[in-house]
Amino acid sequence: MEKIFKLRENGTTIGKEVAGGFTTFFAMAYIIFVNPNFLSQAGMDFNAVMLATCISAAIGTALTALLANVPFAQAPGMGLNAFFTFTVCFGMGYSWQQALAIVFISGLLFLAITVSPLRKQVINAIPAPLKSAISAGIGLFIALVGLLNAGIVVASDNLLDLGNITSGAPLLALIGLLVTGILMACGVKAAMLIGILITTVIGIPMGLTVMPEEITLSSFSLGATFMKMDFAGLLSMGVLPLITAIITFSICDMFDTVGTLIGTAGNAGMLDENGELPRGDRALMADALATCVGACMGTSTVTTFVESSTGISEGARTGLSSMVVSLCFLASCVLAPVAGIIPSAATAPALIIVGILMLKAAARIDWSDFEVAMPCFLTIAMMPFAYSITDGIGFGFISWVVIKLFRGKAKEVPLLMYILSVLFVAMYILSNL
Questions:
Q1: Which among 426, 430, 401 is positioned nearest to 130, based on CA atoms?
Q2: Contact assessment for residue 65 and residue 311, using Cβ atoms and an 8 Å cutoff
């Protein structure tokens, strides 16, 4: 252990690392049940996606441990799975097999950027306020998905309205939201996972949680999603939508990972004198490789989870805690039969809670500066209102560039922002011809 993870050098012990690993796992274990709920809506097999979620999380987290020796865990990312289902599949019209191919290519692009000098330039190209707005907007989008999935909010005649919240799934979801909210407010570890389980139990007398006659692993297999990527049909929707989807996946994954690594490590005093995380480039490389592995297994983009901060707060400082998380995800494959019991009304509160947590990024935006406020507002608002993460990013980028140009600040805008904005404008024009 000492030889591989350098425990003494990092001021930690095996006990702290193991405790931190278990803490991180239980904080993020809700993804085991929530991710299949998302991707199955795109036509993917629920059970296969759950196994893919566990296996890709185990492999990605192990890569982080062995390549970078940092206490961070990976799994299919919230927000990125929403982009996969609702934007790439439903909005752009790609099949889930083609979407997996797009995820794989985005992982290769991320890997190429990570090992090249472009890494810092790309990270610095997107203005900090827009990064915060993207995070907050995805949070609102995820919360809306949770509200719709539960029936708390319903869509009819292109309008949103309050559902029948006094019975059935909407009532169960509201109960689950209150239960999870109370647990979160009380600082209970693994609050979201516990909330899902409690809500599932409450759903039994309500007739919403249906217990199977027998529980067996025999019907659970990766076969329905493993290596099902469809590269041949990627150009069926045109070149620009494909480029947009690939770049969006890569950029969101990169900024999610960089933000989590730097923000969490900074709070824990793990950054060096230059404000960088030692071996952070290797952690990014592990993230990119995990995305490629996840696509092969049959899941959306795998990324570094901010819930890793819970294990770090328990004293975790090395990859040993990540290995503990990896083994926990591997062991969770046996939970596959249990996942089918959990109703969507039990996972919906977790989506809403994640949305709340992501929305705090909006506090980092200077709303008194309209030059900043308008692009950030459009980024945040267009994601739930247009029901598209891509449209939120597109409106934000375009408005940021245009305002800067008319303010005589063209030189302040990095070249990548111009390129991405032109791509978005071209995509909107061509899609409406």
A1: 401
A2: no
3-state secondary structure of 209: coil
Classify burial at 190, counting beta carbons within 10 Å of its beta carbon; exposed 0-12, middle 13-18, buried 19 or more.
buried
CA 179 – CA 183 distance, rounded (Å): 6
Which pLDDT tens digits describe the chain residue by residue (433 residues)?
A: 888 898 898 889 998 899 888 878 887 888 988 899 889 999 999 889 999 999 999 999 999 999 999 999 999 988 889 889 988 999 889 999 999 999 999 999 999 988 888 777 776 778 889 888 888 888 888 888 889 888 999 987 778 889 899 989 999 999 999 999 999 999 887 788 788 889 999 999 998 887 766 655 556 688 899 999 999 989 888 888 898 889 888 888 887 787 778 666 766 677 777 667 788 889 999 999 999 999 999 999 999 987 887 788 778 899 999 999 999 999 888 766 666 677 888 888 888 888 888 888 899 899 999 999 999 999 999 988 888 777 888 899 999 999 999 999 999 998 888 988 988 888 788 666 5
b/e map 322-360, b = 16+ CB within 10 Å: bbbbbebbbebbeebbbbbbbbbbbbbbbbbbbbebbbe
The string over 95-117, giving b where at least 16 C-beta atoms fall within 10 Å of a residue's C-beta and e elsewhere, is bbbbbbbbbbbbbbbbbebbeee
Residues 11-21 as b/e (b if ≥16 CB within 10 A, e otherwise) read ebeeebbbbbb
What is the token pair recorded at 191? Answer: 């609050």
- The CA-atom distances, in angstroms, between 266 and each of 12, 95, 131, 392 are 17, 40, 18, 29
> Any idea which residue has 């050098």 for tokens?
9
State how far the Cα of 61 lies from the Cα of 59, in Å rounded to an integer: 6
Largest Cα span, the chain = 69
Contact assessment for residue 264 and residue 90, using Cβ atoms and an 8 Å cutoff: no
Helix (H) or strand (E) holding 289: helix 280-297
Q: Is 304 helix (H, G, I), strand (E, B) or coil?
A: strand
Report how far residue 286's alpha carbon sits from residue 280's, in angstroms, rounded to the nearest whole number: 10
Among the listed residues 32, 141, 40, the one whose alpha carbon sits nearest the alpha carbon of residue 76 = 32
